[in-house]
Automatic annotation (TrEMBL):
Main location: other
Lineage, uppermost ranks: Bacteria, Pseudomonadati, Planctomycetota, Planctomycetia, Pirellulales
Compartments it resides in: Bacterial microcompartment
Cited InterPro entries: PTAC
Region annotation Disordered: where it falls in the sequence: 17-42
Protein name: Phosphate propanoyltransferase
Cofactor(s) demanded: Zn(2+)
Family of the protein in this entry: Belongs to the PduL family.
Length: 244
C-alpha cells in the first residue's frame, strides 16, 4: 500500500533527524552500512536502532468477539500500522466496563486478532476502572480478572484477561547477539530525562526473527520519565546474575 510506504519513509526521516540529539541510543559512527550487506530488521547504518514506545491501553480480540461487538461478518479494519511489521491499530474501539459500572470509553483494538481476548491497562487505568489488574506478560492471563466489553453491536463478558502488560523489549536475533542476550532474559533500560530520569529493571527480552528493536512500556511508565522529552535511552543486559 502506498500509504504504508509513505508513512515508513516519513518515520525514517524523523528518526534520521533525531539521531544524535534525540531519544535514540544509536551512536553516531559516521560510517554507513557496508554496501550490499543485508541489514537485520530495523537496523540503521549497521547498528541496532533502539526505539522506546508507550503502549497505551488497548484490547486484543478473537475473531468471534469482533463479530459479537461489531456485527456479524465484521473484521478489524487497520487504521495505523505499528512499528512492528504486521501489527496495527484498528479503526474500531470498545468500551471497557468494570465493576460498579465504572468504564473506559474508546479503548483501541489492536490487530491482528488472537486466540483469546485480552485487555492491557496501565495502573492508573485499572484504578479508575476499579479492577485490580496484575502485571503479566502478554498471553499469561490465567487467574486474572475479567470485565465487560461493549461495542456498537453487542457486549462480551470476559471471565479473565485484564492485565497490566509487563515491560518488555522486542528484538530480532541480530539485536540479541549485539546485546549478548537471548529470549527470556532480563534487561535494564535507562531513560535520561530532565529532572525525572529513571532506570527500568525487569525488561523481558522477546526475541524472534522478524522483530525490530523496540521497548514497550505503559503510559504510567512513560509519563514517569516524560518519555517524549527524553534526551537519552540506554538498553543493557541485566548482569546482576552474571556468572563470569
Ligand atoms: Zn510489545
Amino acid at each position: 500500500m502506498n500509504q504504508t510506504i509513505d508513512r515508513n519513509q516519513i518515520e525514517q526521516l524523523v528518526r534520521n533527524a533525531l539521531r544524535g540529539g534525540g531519544p535514540s541510543a544509536t551512536p553516531a559512527t559516521g560510517k554507513s552500512a557496508s554496501a550490499g550487506g543485508i541489514s537485520p530488521p530495523g537496523w540503521i547504518d549497521g547498528q541496532p536502532n533502539l526505539r522506546v514506545s508507550i503502549s497505551a491501553r488497548h484490547v486484543h480480540l478473537t475473531d468471534e468477539h469482533v463479530e459479537t461487538l461489531f456485527g456479524a461478518g465484521s473484521v478489524l479494519e487497520p487504521d495505523k500500522d505499528l512499528y512492528q511489521d504486521g501489527f496495527y491499530a484498528a479503526k474500531q474501539t470498545v468500551m471497557v466496563v468494570g465493576p460498579r459500572r465504572r468504564m473506559l470509553p474508546n479503548v483501541r483494538v489492536l490487530g491482528p486478532t488472537r486466540n483469546f481476548s485480552q485487555v492491557e491497562l496501565a495502573l492508573t487505568d485499572s484504578i479508575s476502572l476499579g479492577i485490580d489488574a496484575p502485571i503479566r506478560h502478554s498471553g499469561k492471563i490465567e487467574g486474572t480478572p475479567g470485565c465487560v466489553l461493549v461495542g456498537p453491536a453487542g457486549t462480551v463478558q470476559l471471565d479473565q484477561g485484564v492485565i497490566r502488560a509487563a515491560r518488555h523489549v522486542h528484538m530480532n536475533f541480530s539485536d540479541a547477539d549485539h546485546f549478548g542476550v537471548k529470549n527470556g532474559d532480563m534487561m535494564q533500560l535507562k531513560i535520561k530525562s530532565h529532572d525525572c530520569s529513571v532506570v527500568f529493571e525487569d525488561v523481558l527480552v522477546r526475541a524472534d526473527e522478524a522483530a525490530k528493536l523496540e521497548v514497550h512500556i505503559d503510559t504510567d511508565e512513560g509519563n514517569a520519565c516524560n518519555l517524549d522529552a527524553a534526551c537519552e535511552v540506554e538498553l543493557r543486559k541485566d548482569d546482576c546474575n552474571c556468572k563470569h
